[in-house]
């Protein structure tokens, strides 16, 4: 501590802003979007209805929702130059890198409507992001597969259009799978916002410089990519696969985590805020068995995950550190059962989180109290010294 400056590594005890969007009680495991409990929302709403709620603060009327969905449908096509953008990337490109690059590039097509102080331009940018991010995500997936890109099908719902873009192909008609649609819609809703997590804080910090919303969201995608944040859902599946391939017992793996061998962690466990349970993890775990059964998929990685959870939750090392499954622990097994490759898991998180990023960017942008983010530091480097004679 020097003067008024207190070091708070990782902002554990620092509120960077005020927000009315999401409320989390980490001890009680409560998560509410604009006052509504996540359990009620997940059981009754849709991705776009929740997006409207997060952005506007109230649930939309039926007319508002219809118009919102219809307007988004009319903006799903990408400019053909942006489709060609993908040709410049290698097939091996990680879809999260493709996503952040393409979203940053997306803004360049709308140079005439990026004024952050013009409500109409902010509104059309909101529509363009919600409409086009799923298409960009599906193109990143098709690029990795070496398959032809499909065009959006506006006769389908938001989620079914996204699923068709990923799993449809040019040779045969796409058949909607209601089990898949319902499961994905619910998972997207569970990811839509989470107050000041690292990627949302990134979106707000970049936006505080009056950077346009596309650049701010692109920065948020990059922050989400990290394995300690959204990248954890991909890392969990890698971890479960390694345990299975090694043939070692779950107990043995947990011992290695406790010994911090090569810095390994129990991915999908722990949370800065939740210290008893992550309500989203509970909801995902509840649906995992149901979704895999409905999809006719049996995956022993789910059994390994459940065993890992049981062993860890009975172990003092995890109990003392209040480490419980977070939202990323079970989602990967479901995404895999849906047919997504592990490198698409964090992309699905990004699509889920987009409405929250937009809502926070707009709240920050509209708040007269917003100032450019510029944290202080405690200097610990050398005191002044003379330039050496040479
Ligand atoms: C998300 O912020 C959000 O809301 C994020 C998110 C959202 O919706 O936006 O909820 C999404 O990012 C969920 C988290 C996904 N990440 C992971 O699952 C990666 C594994 N988890 C950790 O790396 C960690 O728990 C974090 C990053 C989630 C939280 O980090 P903190 O709060 O800085 O905790 P820490 O690293 O200081 O750990 C405290 C102690 C340490 O022990 P000691 O060194 O003091 O002995 O707990 C240990 C850590 O070693 N620890 C773990 C662990 N997580 C923390 N030990 C083993 N396995 C783990 N997963």
UniProtKB/TrEMBL annotation:
Keywords: Transferase, Tricarboxylic acid cycle. InterPro entries: Citrate_synth-like_lrg_a-sub, Citrate_synth-like_sm_a-sub, Citrate_synthase, Citrate_synthase_AS, Citrate_synthase_bac-typ, Citrate_synthase_sf, Citrate_synthase_typ-I. It catalyses: oxaloacetate + acetyl-CoA + H2O = citrate + CoA + H(+). The keyword Protein biosynthesis does not apply. Pathway: Carbohydrate metabolism; tricarboxylic acid cycle; isocitrate from oxaloacetate: step 1/2. PROSITE patterns: CITRATE_SYNTHASE. SUPFAM superfamilies: Citrate synthase. The keyword Metal-binding does not apply. Belongs to the citrate synthase family. This is Citrate synthase. It comes from Leifsonella bigeumensis. The lineage of its organism: Bacteria, Bacillati, Actinomycetota, Actinomycetes, Micrococcales.
């Amino acid at each position: 501590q020097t003067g008024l400056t207190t070091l708070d590594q990782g902002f554990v005890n620092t509120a960077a802003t005020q927000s009315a969007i999401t409320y989390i009680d980490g001890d009680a495991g409560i998560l509410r979007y604009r006052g509504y409990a996540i359990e009620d929302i997940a059981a009754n709403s849709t991705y776009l209805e929740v997006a409207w709620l997060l952005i506007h603060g109230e649930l939309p009327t039926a007319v508002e929702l219809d118009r919102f969905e219809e307007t988004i449908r009319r903006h799903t096509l990408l400019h053909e130059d942006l489709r060609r953008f993908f040709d410049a990337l290698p097939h091996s490109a990680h879809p999260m890198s493709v996503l952040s690059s393409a979203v940053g590039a997306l803004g360049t097509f709308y140079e005439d409507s990026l004024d952050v102080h013009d409500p109409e331009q902010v509104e059309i940018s909101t529509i363009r992001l919600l409409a086009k991010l799923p298409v960009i995500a599906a193109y990143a997936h098709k690029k990795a597969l070496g398959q032809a890109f499909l065009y959006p099908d506006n006769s389908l719902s938001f989620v079914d259009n996204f699923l068709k873009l990923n799993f449809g192909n040019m040779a045969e008609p796409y058949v909607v799978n209601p089990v898949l649609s319902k499961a994905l819609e619910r998972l997207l809703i569970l990811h839509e916002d989470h107050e000041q997590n690292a990627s949302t804080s990134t979106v707000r910090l970049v936006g505080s410089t009056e950077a346009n919303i596309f650049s701010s969201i692109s920065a948020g995608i990059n922050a989400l990519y990290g394995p300690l944040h959204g990248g954890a859902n991909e890392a969990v599946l890698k971890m479960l696969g390694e345990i299975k391939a090694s043939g070692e017992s779950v107990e043995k793996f947990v011992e290695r985590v406790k010994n911090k061998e090569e810095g390994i962690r129990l991915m999908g466990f722990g949370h800065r805020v939740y210290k008893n349970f992550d309500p989203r993890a509970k909801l995902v775990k509840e649906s995992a068995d149901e979704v895999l059964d409905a999809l006719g998929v049996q995956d022993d990685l789910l059994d390994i995950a459940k065993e890992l959870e049981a062993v860890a939750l009975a172990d003092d090392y995890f109990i003392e550190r209040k480490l419980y499954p977070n939202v990323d622990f079970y989602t990967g097994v479901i995404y895999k059962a849906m047919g997504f490759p592990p490198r698409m898991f964090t992309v699905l998180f990004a699509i889920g989180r987009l409405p929250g990023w937009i809502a926070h960017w707009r709240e920050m942008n509209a708040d007269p109290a917003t100032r450019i983010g510029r944290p202080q530091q405690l200097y610990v480097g050398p005191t002044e010294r003379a330039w050496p004679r040479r």
